[in-house]
Design brief:
The structure holds two protein chains of two kinds.
Chain A: H1 2-57, H2 75-82, E1 87-88, E2 91-92, E3 99-105, H3 110-128, E4 133-139, H4 145-158, H5 163-172, H6 184-192, H7 199-204, H8 209-224, E5 232-237, E6 243-244, H9 253-269
Parallel strand pairs in A: 3-4
Antiparallel strand pairs in A: 1-2, 2-4, 3-5, 5-6
Chain B: H1 3-30, H2 41-46, E1 52-53, E2 56-57, H3 58-72, H4 78-106, H5 111-132, H6 138-145
Antiparallel strand pairs in B: 1-2
Helix pairs in contact in B: 1-3, 1-5, 3-4, 4-5
The chains are: A alpha+beta, B mainly alpha.
């Protein structure tokens, strides 16, 4: 009897354990399903947030967009920035300005584009327009064949005193480095956006010895200062010794403003 | 890896994330450029228009996120784990967005941002594991053990 009762109790205990295990497993499965559902929800929410951010912040990543009446995107901005400022070859501003600043750049260099788009307009508005500073662009064209083709066309535009227009508009429409995007069509397109530039004449004058010499001189001058990258700047009294601008703390307007102000102050004391 | 080990690993990763985001936030407000091992990628990324979201510097958003994750790791229970997972998953998705901007829009790579993206990815993986393995947690198992037994009538 005892054996039978004990066996029954054992069977009941075993059945209970089995049932509890099954309930536990079912509960665990349900909890896991809930967790997966919640994690999926969190992921969906995160993706939705990113998609909203992506949509809200897109539009500025496809380069400049053409405004009404523009043949090239940014042409109006370039014309407005440089309107009324004299140009002579690679120089921008009053030839008798007390201070000279030279930019060594490459038309393919993305950092030069940043400088041209975001920093130099303030320098031009605050220092060049009022005749205190003269800017000179030296194209060192060291990044590849696209750089050389672009530099030759910019140099040829300089023979028509339109180098700064061409350079600024080129930077606004700059493509991806060394992808072969600087084709004749591209150069013509940029040229067509520069008001007053005879594009056919510039095209023909790309091979002018003056253009070639300017490129060689720019590189020699650049290496002479010990620079290895672009954009690099030197500033100082016109006709005097120009000193390299330090960009150790990054290139921004303040990095150029300080040396320019000091050069202007020094020029006034002379 | 036990839950405790996962939690400790996440604490260390979060501290690394706070360090990166804190450094980038500090130099943003001081006007410095980040120390960059290769080229000017960091400088370009930090000075780009994508370095802010609705006027708030992205490193500051990262710092807030990492601090939130750090604090959540000190709480116990399913809700805390889910909160950690939610924040890390959001952080992971945002890191992917920033990496996309770096590669395809800015076309420059910032090592600090890549480092943060890796940290956030690991945090998201570990936080998800913690949620899915909650039943293996000893504390949770002990809670289950005290469930009242009941005899069939």
């Amino acid at each position: 009897m005892a054996d039978t009762g004990g066996t029954r109790r054992e069977r009941r205990a075993a059945a209970r354990a089995e049932r509890q295990a099954a309930e536990k497993a079912a509960a665990a499965k349900a909890r896991q399903r809930t967790r997966l559902f919640q994690l999926g929800g969190a992921l969906a929410l995160a993706v939705a947030v990113v998609v909203v951010i992506l949509i809200a912040t897109s539009g500025g990543d496809d380069g400049p967009t053409k405004k009404a009446g523009e043949s090239v995107a940014g042409a109006t901005d370039t014309a407005a920035l440089l309107a009324g400022i004299s140009q002579r070859g690679a120089e921008l501003g009053d030839p008798r300005a007390p201070v000279t600043m030279i930019e060594f750049g490459d038309l393919q260099c993305p950092y030069c584009k940043d400088a041209s788009d975001q920093i130099l307009p303030s320098v031009i508005e605050n220092y060049v327009r009022d005749g205190r500073v003269k800017l000179i662009f030296r194209d060192v064209a060291f990044l590849g064949d696209d750089s050389i083709r672009a530099a030759q066309m910019a140099g040829a535009a300089g023979l028509q005193n339109k180098l700064w227009d061409y350079v600024h508009l080129f930077y606004l429409n700059q493509g991806t480095e060394n992808t072969g995007y600087v084709t004749d069509d591209f150069l013509r397109e940029i040229g067509s956006g520069v008001r007053g530039l005879n594009v056919d004449r510039a095209f023909a004058e790309r091979a002018d010895p003056q253009v070639d010499r300017a490129l060689q001189d720019a590189r020699e001058e650049w290496t002479g200062y010990g620079f290895q990258g672009t954009p690099s700047f030197v500033v100082g009294p016109t006709g005097g010794t120009l000193e390299p601008v330090s960009t150790d703390n990054g290139l921004n307007y303040e990095a150029l403003k300080g040396p320019i102000d000091r050069a202007i102050a020094a020029a006034q004391e002379r | 890896m036990s839950d405790r080990a996962l939690q400790r690993t996440m604490l260390v990763l979060t501290l690394i994330g706070i360090g990166i985001a804190g450094y980038l936030t500090y130099i943003h407000y001081r006007g410095f450029n980040p120390i960059c091992a290769v080229g000017h990628g960091c400088e370009r990324v930090q000075n780009s228009e994508w370095a802010k979201l609705a006027g708030v510097p992205v490193p500051l958003l990262g710092l807030i996120g990492y601090v939130g994750i750090f604090v959540s790791l000190f709480f116990r229970g399913e809700l805390a784990r889910m909160a950690t997972a939610g924040m890390t998953i959001l952080g992971f998705a945002f890191s992917m967005y920033l990496t996309y901007r770096e590669i395809f829009t800015i076309e420059a790579i910032c090592q600090w941002c890549v480092g943060s993206a890796i940290v956030m990815t690991l945090l998201a993986i570990f936080a998800t594991l913690r949620v899915l393995r909650a039943d293996d947690d000893e504390a949770y198992a002990s809670d289950l053990a005290v469930e009242p037994e009941h005899e069939p009538v």
